[in-house]
Amino acid sequence: MVTTGAIIYGKGDYLGFNEQEHPVALQLGGSNPEHMAKCAALAQERGYDEVNINVGCPSDRVKNGSFGACLMAQPEVVADNVKAMQAEVDIPVTVKCRIGIDDMDEYKDFARFIDIVATAGCDTFIVHARKAWLQGLSPKENRDIPPLNYPRVHMLKESHPELSISINGGIKSLADAQEQLKYVDGVMIGREVYANPYILSTVDAEIFGDNSVQPISRRDVVLKMQQYIEKCIARQDDPYFKPWHVARHMLGLYQGQAGGRIWRRYLSQNGTGKSPDPHLLMNALEAVESAQQEINDYNAQKAANNIS
After folding, report:
1. In terms of residue numbers, what domain contains 225?
2. 232 in catalytic set
């Protein structure tokens, strides 16, 4: 998610991405139709596959910038942005929203928002199945405290079969996703994938029915990401790049596995600092595999002793 102000007025390149990330969407934070349309056009020029409007973030900073979840109370503003953006781009313009905010949390309020924005031309909505409290809860609390209401999102899809409705919030496994796909068109998994990215290793087979793709091992993930780091260093197009910029997003790779704590600790303790280690991932992998080997040797010795 990037604000329109950062893109238009910022000094950095906020639209860069790696070609291997396709299909990739840019989520825009903003509410000024002219600015949103300009940024959407820039996103299309840079090769993004989709541009999404943020109508879900509940932070005070976002609210003060007149975008995010507060726009649930201003569907006409969102509709104007959709129209302006679609006039400038051919890629899909989508909306990510909540099921409500504050005391505007009845289904009729939610349905009214969807109807107005859909009439403007948006046919794809990603819905976080929690309302947001704009007063009294932090953004972190807004991700957990308001109760999930999956049936409300299911009801929306049932009443609007012509729209593409994806659900988000509290989904922790591919089995959970399969259950949701009985009622909606898509599932967005955020925090769980970030904390435990390896749950997506079997997504091709389990969700998309493509058994031709073999799951990649955690070790191969590390090797491929090491290659990516080396390419980033060799390009020298970002003087501020450090291996930690990649590694910090991989802390959960060994979640639930032997050596998982060692992996996290090694990256955290050795990834930061003024002298970055270009072989950070490989050294962390060696530490994990050494620990795993010790465990295997211990178990083998224990089994041998029991047999004897």
Report:
1. 218-307
2. no
